């Protein structure tokens, strides 16, 4: 499932509240954006119960928060509140719990109104950046830029910029 999420050409948004435990942390790592209620708590509880972590946080956490922080969390199993998780880079947005559903819907609407082809290409660029050296990444970025420059959305974005108006993307 995580492999599918990572390779999906559309942005994946996770929305959490309350306690997020164990393998769900891997799901957050695979997500492109994470919005959390202010009462959210993340916990790698496995360590406290004598288990190893599962659900791929061992892949995502070192890349997102660094090896030392990932090791600290995996070994000590401490709970992390939403504000700390945002500070570490595990989540993007913290909102009041009563606004979580509306804020998540607003974020998803913003993404769906955007240049979906550019979103897909940017997702590839960002996700693969840790796998390449600088020169390989520069070549990939040039290739994806050229792909994006052939889309209707690219031309609409340029026309909108020059016309000082908001673009109306079509997803083509």
CATH architecture of the largest domain: Alpha-Beta Complex
Give the count of helical stretches. 9
**Radius of gyration using CA atoms only:** 18 Å
The counted number of beta strands is: 6
Which CATH class of the largest domain is shown? Answer: Alpha Beta
**Between the first and last Cα atoms, what is the distance in angstroms?**
27 Å
- What percentage of residues falls in helices of 4 or more residues? 40-55%
Average pLDDT taken over every residue:
93
**Which H/E pattern describes the elements?**
HEEHEEHHEHEHHHH
Tell me the name of the CATH homologous superfamily of the largest domain.
2-enoyl-CoA Hydratase, Chain A, domain 1
CATH topology of the largest domain: 2-enoyl-CoA Hydratase, Chain A, domain 1
Percent of residues in β-strands: 5-15%
């Amino acid at each position: 499932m995580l492999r599918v999420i990572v390779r999906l050409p559309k942005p994946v948004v996770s929305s959490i509240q309350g306690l997020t435990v164990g393998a769900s942390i891997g799901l957050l790592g695979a997500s492109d954006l994470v919005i959390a209620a202010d009462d959210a708590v993340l916990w790698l509880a496995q360590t406290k119960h004598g288990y190893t972590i599962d659900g791929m946080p061992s892949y995502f956490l070192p890349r997102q928060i660094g090896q030392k922080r990932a090791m600290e969390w995996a070994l000590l199993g401490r709970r992390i509140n939403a504000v700390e998780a945002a500070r570490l880079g595990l989540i993007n947005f913290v909102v009041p719990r009563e606004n979580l559903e509306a804020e998540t819907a607003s974020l998803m609407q913003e993404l769906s109104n955007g240049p979906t082809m550019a979103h897909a290409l940017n997702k590839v660029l960002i996700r693969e950046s840790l796998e390449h050296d600088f020169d390989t990444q520069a070549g990939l970025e040039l290739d994806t830029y050229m792909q994006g420059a052939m889309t209707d959305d690219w031309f609409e974005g340029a026309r909108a910029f020059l016309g000082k108006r908001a673009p109306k993307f079509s997803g083509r």
